[in-house]
Protein backbone atom coordinates (compact mmCIF):
# COMPACT_ATOMS: atom_id res chain seq x y z
CA UNK A 1 0.00 0.00 0.00
CA UNK A 2 1.42 3.38 -1.00
CA UNK A 3 2.20 5.80 1.80
CA UNK A 4 1.15 9.41 2.25
CA UNK A 5 2.46 11.58 -0.56
CA UNK A 6 2.95 15.33 -0.52
CA UNK A 7 3.65 17.64 -3.41
CA UNK A 8 5.72 19.58 -4.01
CA UNK A 9 8.56 18.51 -1.73
CA UNK A 10 10.29 21.89 -1.86
CA UNK A 11 8.96 25.34 -2.59
CA UNK A 12 10.40 28.85 -2.57
CA UNK A 13 8.00 31.79 -2.52
CA UNK A 14 8.20 35.52 -1.97
CA UNK A 15 6.52 37.47 0.80
CA UNK A 16 2.97 38.40 -0.11
CA UNK A 17 2.46 35.49 -2.50
CA UNK A 18 0.16 32.58 -1.85
CA UNK A 19 0.90 28.88 -1.97
CA UNK A 20 -1.06 25.63 -2.26
CA UNK A 21 0.28 22.35 -0.93
CA UNK A 22 -1.18 18.96 -1.75
CA UNK A 23 -1.51 15.75 0.23
CA UNK A 24 -2.67 12.33 -0.95
CA UNK A 25 -3.55 10.04 1.97
CA UNK A 26 -3.12 6.31 2.17
CA UNK A 27 -5.85 4.56 0.22
CA UNK A 28 -8.90 4.05 2.42
CA UNK A 29 -7.94 6.71 4.95
CA UNK A 30 -10.61 9.36 5.40
CA UNK A 31 -8.90 11.74 7.80
CA UNK A 32 -6.13 14.15 6.86
CA UNK A 33 -4.37 16.43 9.35
CA UNK A 34 -1.88 19.18 8.62
CA UNK A 35 1.01 20.29 10.84
CA UNK A 36 3.64 23.01 10.68
CA UNK A 37 7.11 22.14 11.94
CA UNK A 38 9.59 24.88 12.76
CA UNK A 39 12.85 24.68 14.74
CA UNK A 40 12.15 25.04 18.45
CA UNK A 41 8.37 24.80 18.05
CA UNK A 42 7.88 21.15 17.26
CA UNK A 43 4.83 20.18 15.27
CA UNK A 44 1.98 22.67 15.48
CA UNK A 45 -1.46 21.40 14.54
CA UNK A 46 -3.10 23.34 11.72
CA UNK A 47 -6.34 21.51 10.97
CA UNK A 48 -7.95 18.15 10.38
CA UNK A 49 -10.35 17.17 7.63
CA UNK A 50 -12.64 14.17 7.70
CA UNK A 51 -15.02 13.27 4.89
CA UNK A 52 -14.54 16.69 3.26
CA UNK A 53 -15.38 18.58 6.46
CA UNK A 54 -13.00 20.47 8.70
CA UNK A 55 -13.29 18.74 12.06
CA UNK A 56 -10.56 20.43 14.08
CA UNK A 57 -8.62 23.63 13.79
CA UNK A 58 -5.44 24.83 15.49
CA UNK A 59 -4.47 28.35 16.50
CA UNK A 60 -3.34 29.72 13.17
CA UNK A 61 -4.51 32.89 11.43
CA UNK A 62 -7.15 32.82 8.72
CA UNK A 63 -4.41 33.05 6.06
CA UNK A 64 -4.08 29.30 6.53
CA UNK A 65 -6.91 27.34 5.01
CA UNK A 66 -7.52 23.91 3.64
CA UNK A 67 -9.98 21.62 2.02
CA UNK A 68 -10.55 17.96 1.35
CA UNK A 69 -11.92 16.38 -1.78
CA UNK A 70 -14.27 13.44 -2.18
CA UNK A 71 -11.31 11.11 -2.83
CA UNK A 72 -9.84 12.25 0.57
CA UNK A 73 -7.00 14.16 -1.07
CA UNK A 74 -6.38 17.43 0.74
CA UNK A 75 -4.92 20.80 -0.10
CA UNK A 76 -3.61 23.48 2.20
CA UNK A 77 -3.42 27.11 1.15
CA UNK A 78 -1.47 29.95 2.72
CA UNK A 79 -2.22 33.44 1.46
CA UNK A 80 -0.17 36.60 1.86
CA UNK A 81 2.95 34.70 2.84
CA UNK A 82 5.16 36.02 5.63
CA UNK A 83 8.80 35.19 6.38
CA UNK A 84 7.66 33.34 9.51
CA UNK A 85 5.68 30.89 7.38
CA UNK A 86 8.93 29.24 6.32
CA UNK A 87 8.61 25.74 7.71
CA UNK A 88 8.17 22.07 6.98
CA UNK A 89 4.49 21.35 6.39
CA UNK A 90 3.48 17.79 7.18
CA UNK A 91 0.27 16.04 6.47
CA UNK A 92 -0.86 12.85 8.16
CA UNK A 93 -3.66 10.48 7.30
CA UNK A 94 -5.55 8.04 9.44
CA UNK A 95 -8.42 5.65 8.97
CA UNK A 96 -11.07 7.47 10.94
CA UNK A 97 -9.39 10.42 12.60
CA UNK A 98 -8.99 11.17 16.29
CA UNK A 99 -6.24 9.89 18.53
CA UNK A 100 -7.54 6.33 18.57
CA UNK A 101 -6.28 5.77 15.04
CA UNK A 102 -2.61 5.87 14.21
CA UNK A 103 -1.56 8.77 12.02
CA UNK A 104 0.74 8.11 9.08
CA UNK A 105 2.83 11.09 8.05
CA UNK A 106 4.03 12.12 4.63
CA UNK A 107 7.59 13.36 4.03
CA UNK A 108 6.51 16.99 4.15
CA UNK A 109 6.78 20.06 1.96
CA UNK A 110 9.65 22.39 2.80
CA UNK A 111 8.42 25.97 2.22
CA UNK A 112 10.90 28.82 2.16
CA UNK A 113 9.57 32.38 2.07
CA UNK A 114 12.04 35.07 0.99
CA UNK B 1 1.96 28.22 25.75
CA UNK B 2 3.88 24.98 25.33
CA UNK B 3 1.64 22.35 26.89
CA UNK B 4 3.98 19.50 26.03
CA UNK B 5 7.65 20.04 26.78
CA UNK B 6 10.77 18.13 25.90
CA UNK B 7 13.44 19.99 27.80
CA UNK B 8 16.42 18.14 26.33
CA UNK B 9 16.99 19.19 22.73
CA UNK B 10 19.63 16.48 22.30
CA UNK B 11 20.91 13.30 23.90
CA UNK B 12 23.91 11.08 23.11
CA UNK B 13 24.03 7.45 24.25
CA UNK B 14 26.52 4.64 23.71
CA UNK B 15 25.32 1.75 21.58
CA UNK B 16 23.95 -1.05 23.75
CA UNK B 17 23.11 1.25 26.65
CA UNK B 18 19.69 2.53 27.68
CA UNK B 19 18.31 5.71 26.14
CA UNK B 20 15.82 7.66 28.25
CA UNK B 21 13.85 10.47 26.64
CA UNK B 22 11.69 12.66 28.83
CA UNK B 23 8.53 14.63 28.29
CA UNK B 24 6.49 16.86 30.62
CA UNK B 25 2.99 18.18 30.13
CA UNK B 26 0.93 20.85 31.82
CA UNK B 27 -2.62 20.10 30.70
CA UNK B 28 -4.25 17.77 33.22
CA UNK B 29 -6.94 16.92 30.67
CA UNK B 30 -4.45 15.00 28.52
CA UNK B 31 -5.21 11.31 28.79
CA UNK B 32 -3.49 9.72 25.81
CA UNK B 33 0.18 9.99 24.97
CA UNK B 34 2.26 8.95 21.98
CA UNK B 35 5.88 8.89 20.88
CA UNK B 36 6.94 9.47 17.29
CA UNK B 37 10.34 9.05 15.68
CA UNK B 38 11.55 11.19 12.79
CA UNK B 39 14.47 10.66 10.42
CA UNK B 40 15.73 13.55 8.27
CA UNK B 41 13.71 14.11 5.09
CA UNK B 42 10.97 11.76 6.30
CA UNK B 43 7.73 12.29 8.16
CA UNK B 44 7.38 11.15 11.79
CA UNK B 45 6.51 7.50 12.37
CA UNK B 46 4.48 6.22 15.28
CA UNK B 47 6.44 4.31 17.92
CA UNK B 48 4.35 3.60 20.96
CA UNK B 49 1.43 5.02 22.91
CA UNK B 50 -0.02 4.88 26.40
CA UNK B 51 -3.40 5.63 27.88
CA UNK B 52 -3.70 7.41 31.22
CA UNK B 53 -5.27 4.32 32.77
CA UNK B 54 -1.86 2.65 32.53
CA UNK B 55 1.52 3.59 33.89
CA UNK B 56 3.62 1.46 31.56
CA UNK B 57 3.44 0.11 28.04
CA UNK B 58 6.08 -2.04 26.42
CA UNK B 59 6.77 -2.95 22.80
CA UNK B 60 9.99 -4.79 22.14
CA UNK B 61 12.92 -2.54 22.96
CA UNK B 62 10.63 0.43 23.64
CA UNK B 63 8.89 1.11 26.94
CA UNK B 64 6.88 4.18 27.82
CA UNK B 65 6.31 5.13 31.46
CA UNK B 66 3.63 7.55 32.60
CA UNK B 67 3.64 9.37 35.95
CA UNK B 68 0.32 11.20 36.08
CA UNK B 69 0.92 12.91 39.40
CA UNK B 70 4.14 14.43 38.05
CA UNK B 71 2.66 14.99 34.58
CA UNK B 72 5.69 13.25 33.17
CA UNK B 73 6.32 10.51 30.69
CA UNK B 74 9.48 8.88 29.49
CA UNK B 75 10.53 6.61 26.65
CA UNK B 76 13.13 3.95 27.37
CA UNK B 77 15.02 2.26 24.54
CA UNK B 78 16.98 -0.84 25.54
CA UNK B 79 19.41 -1.69 24.10
CA UNK B 80 20.08 1.39 21.99
CA UNK B 81 21.08 0.73 18.39
CA UNK B 82 22.63 3.03 15.75
CA UNK B 83 19.35 2.98 13.80
CA UNK B 84 17.66 4.62 16.78
CA UNK B 85 19.47 7.89 15.99
CA UNK B 86 16.61 10.25 15.11
CA UNK B 87 14.46 13.03 16.52
CA UNK B 88 11.83 11.81 18.97
CA UNK B 89 8.60 13.70 19.56
CA UNK B 90 6.15 13.08 22.34
CA UNK B 91 2.53 14.02 21.79
CA UNK B 92 -0.59 14.20 23.93
CA UNK B 93 -4.31 14.45 23.42
CA UNK B 94 -7.48 14.87 25.44
CA UNK B 95 -10.76 13.04 25.12
CA UNK B 96 -12.47 16.35 25.75
CA UNK B 97 -12.71 18.83 22.96
CA UNK B 98 -11.29 17.92 19.62
CA UNK B 99 -8.76 15.15 20.42
CA UNK B 100 -6.08 16.90 18.40
CA UNK B 101 -2.49 15.92 19.07
CA UNK B 102 -0.25 18.43 20.83
CA UNK B 103 3.42 17.75 20.14
CA UNK B 104 6.57 18.56 22.05
CA UNK B 105 9.55 20.23 20.41
CA UNK B 106 11.52 17.01 19.99
CA UNK B 107 14.75 15.48 21.29
CA UNK B 108 17.55 14.52 18.91
CA UNK B 109 18.95 11.16 19.97
CA UNK B 110 22.41 10.17 18.75
CA UNK B 111 23.62 6.63 19.34
CA UNK B 112 27.41 6.42 19.46
CA UNK B 113 28.82 3.16 18.04
Structure, explained:
The complex is a heterodimer of chains A (114) and B (113). Chain A has no helices and eleven strands. Chain A has 114 residues and is mainly beta. In chain A, a hairpin with a 5-residue loop joins β7 (64-68) and β8 (74-78). In chain B, strands 2, 4, 5, 9, 10 and 11 form a six-stranded mixed beta sheet that branches. A five-stranded antiparallel beta sheet of chain B has the order 1-3-8-7-6, with no helix packed on it. Chain B is an all-beta fold and 113 residues long. Chain B is globular, with a radius of gyration of 13 Å. Chains A and B meet through β5 and β10 of A and β4, β9 and β10 of B.
Describe the structure using short key phrases.
heterodimer, A: 114 residues, mainly beta, four-stranded antiparallel β-sheet, 53% strand, globular, B: 113 residues, five-stranded antiparallel β-sheet, 11 strands, 0% helix
Task: Indicate the topology.
The complex is a heterodimer of chains A (114) and B (113).
Chain A: E1 5-7, E2 10-13, E3 19-24, E4 31-38, E5 42-50, E6 53-57, E7 64-68, E8 74-78, E9 87-94, E10 104-105, E11 109-113
Parallel strand pairs in A: 2-11
Antiparallel strand pairs in A: 1-3, 3-8, 4-5, 4-9, 5-6, 7-8, 9-10, 9-11
Chain B: E1 4-5, E2 10-14, E3 19-25, E4 30-38, E5 45-51, E6 56-59, E7 62-67, E8 72-77, E9 86-94, E10 102-103, E11 107-112
Parallel strand pairs in B: 2-11
Antiparallel strand pairs in B: 1-3, 3-8, 4-5, 4-9, 6-7, 7-8, 9-10, 9-11
Amino acid sequence: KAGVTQTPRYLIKTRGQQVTLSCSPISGHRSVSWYQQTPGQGLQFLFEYFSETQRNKGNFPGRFSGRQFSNSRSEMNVSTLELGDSALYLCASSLEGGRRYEQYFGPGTRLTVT
Amino acid sequence: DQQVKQNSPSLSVQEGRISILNCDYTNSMFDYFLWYKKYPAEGPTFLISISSIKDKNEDGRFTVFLNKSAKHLSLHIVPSQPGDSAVYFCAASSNFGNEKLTFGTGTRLTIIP
